[in-house]
Amino acid sequence: MVEQDKIVSASKRIAAPAASIFELIADPARQPEWDGNDNLAQAAPGQRVRAVGDVFVMTLSHGPVRENHVVEFDEGRLIAWRPSEPDSAPPGHLWRWQLEAADDGTTVVTHTYDWTELNDPERLPRAQATTADKLRASIDRLAALAEKG
């Protein structure tokens, strides 16, 4: 499998300002509301991401807890994290959100799943099953929340 096959993304123009959309993404307690894969159960409040190096903790819908290590951050524009099991090194996959504000008050949102560095063979089937349609489902749910304000 070539490297570009291990990077999946989807984009959509959302009728809301980038700052409002970013708040929904950067606050882990809000993420289960828009997760299109129904993979996220809950995150404790008060974990709003503010910088590279932050770690937020999320409970998945099927029970396990994940620590999410923020590796890219630009307030209002970019956030990316690498999930891991508690007290373990991240196995190499990355979730990224990029927001580009447009002049008309809308925002182009791009969601990317990158597993080019995934080194855990047990996670490969799930990584391979993460398609652009699944990413788009999260963007669509995010858009519904952001557009109703």
Q: Could you characterize what this model shows?
A:
This protein has 149 residues and is of the alpha+beta class. It has one domain (3-147): Alpha-D-Glucose-1,6-Bisphosphate, Chain A, domain 4 (2-Layer Sandwich). The protein contains four helices and seven strands. It has helices at 18-26, 31-34, 124-129, 132-147, and strands at 7-14, 40-42, 55-60, 65-74, 78-84, 94-101, 107-114. β4 and β5 form a beta hairpin. α1 (18-26) packs across α4. The longest helix has 16 residues, at 132-147. The mean pLDDT is 95. This is SRPBCC family protein. InterPro entries: Polyketide_cyclase/dehydratase (IPR019587), START-like_dom_sf (IPR023393).
Share of helical residues: 10-25%
Q: How many strands?
A: 7
Number of self-contained structural domains: 1
Main β sheet profile: 7 strands, antiparallel
Structural classification: alpha+beta
CATH class: Alpha Beta
CATH superfamily annotation: START domain
**What would CATH call the architecture?**
2-Layer Sandwich
**Strand order, sheet with most strands:** 1-7-6-5-4-3-2
Q: How is the CATH topology named?
A: Alpha-D-Glucose-1,6-Bisphosphate, Chain A, domain 4
> How many alpha or pi helices?
4
What is the gyration radius calculated from CA atoms? 15 Å
Order of SSEs: EHHEEEEEEHH
Protein name: SRPBCC family protein
InterPro entries: Polyketide_cyclase/dehydratase, START-like_dom_sf
Organism: Mycolicibacterium pallens
Pfam families: Polyketide_cyc2 (PF10604)
